[in-house]
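Notes continue from the previous slide.

Worked example: a multi-chain complex. Inputs as given:
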Amino acid sequence: MAVSDQTQMAVLGGLSLAPMTGYALREQIRDTLGQFWSESFGQIYPALALLERDGLIERRETVRSGSSIFAVTPGGVQRLRELLAEAPAPEKPRNGLLLRLFFGRQLGADACRQLVLDAQSRAEADLAGLSTVRSEVEADDSADAPFILLTVMAGEHAARATLAWAHDALDVLERQAAATQRLQ
Amino acid sequence: MAVSDQTQMAVLGGLSLAPMTGYALREQIRDTLGQFWSESFGQIYPALALLERDGLIERRETVRSGSSIFAVTPGGVQRLRELLAEAPAPEKPRNGLLLRLFFGRQLGADACRQLVLDAQSRAEADLAGLSTVRSEVEADDSADAPFILLTVMAGEHAARATLAWAHDALDVLERQAAATQRLQ
DNA sequence: ATGGGCATGTAAGTAGTTACATGATTTA
DNA sequence: TAAATCATGTAACTACTTACATGCCCAT
């Protein structure tokens, strides 16, 4: 199956930070890129096979039989730069939360309120997690650190925006509930 | 082909606001839900066929031959409420901008700067568009309006967060460029 | 020795997009 | 009357996920 440019970019990029196994790469993507990117096993291994075939990554032996460390070759770095330079694909958003709120009249104000509270909790948890990541990134003086910090900052701003929105949204829902009650 | 619950929800929801043709529904989804939802023709028509088969929507004749207005039936409203009550599917994020910035060391600080500036422009445009939408929603005294307002507010908070982040990010990139220059 | 985590890979299925084909109606 | 727009629908394709199959290695 064809492997998309997007997936190749994530795989080459991940391996460019440090050579590792496919398994470790998947954990790396889930744990450090998870806030804004996702790849599944079913994408990663075919991508590794393709990139190896094209000489963009190479397999290094490990002590453990049946496993290998993948490292980006000079050609792979070149390819990564080309991929990164492509314009980001326009996103096709699918925000289940906002879709439900949009049709909130059918869902009911109480359920909407609960959805907002859930989003609030998630944003609080994200913010806590990001503060840990920020400390790590700030302690890291590698050349990658300043760029990684940009993505941490994006997560923080987004989470704080969610908290501020949740506050306003609960306000609207409360006033709306009060107005509905008056009509009854 | 199977039509996902998500698509059925968007289609039923859209038609619940007002009966319309499939074509108009697609425009409605693109123009009013576009900030947080997307559906393509290839999904909408099969969904309409399925929902009609199940008696959840009905086809009303129009003057124009070969076209029909679709309206939600009582059973369709019931189904919509069930779908809305399902927990939102966890998002699989794919933010091409943040992925590129994460590997910004390979992309280069100048290109990163340009990406941030582009995001800033888009956020400004979004904010301007949303202020128009907000006026419309505030003037609308239908029962749907307060819920639609919640999604408008979410868009506004997200856009303002992007602007604030862009400011900080340009700062980081500038300081980083200055630091790099000192080393040369 | 066995259960759990590390590791690689494939197959089947799902979801969604794009491009195409067709025709009606309106408008310039 | 020609072009643009409204309208419906399908087929081929792309991308991605999930579940499964397999085996290694370490700790208990």
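Summary box: Residues 94 and 155 of chain B are 18 Å apart (CA to CA). Residues 21-24, 41-42, 45-46, 48-49, 64, 66-68, 92 of chain B lie near DNA strand D (CB under 10 Å from a C1').
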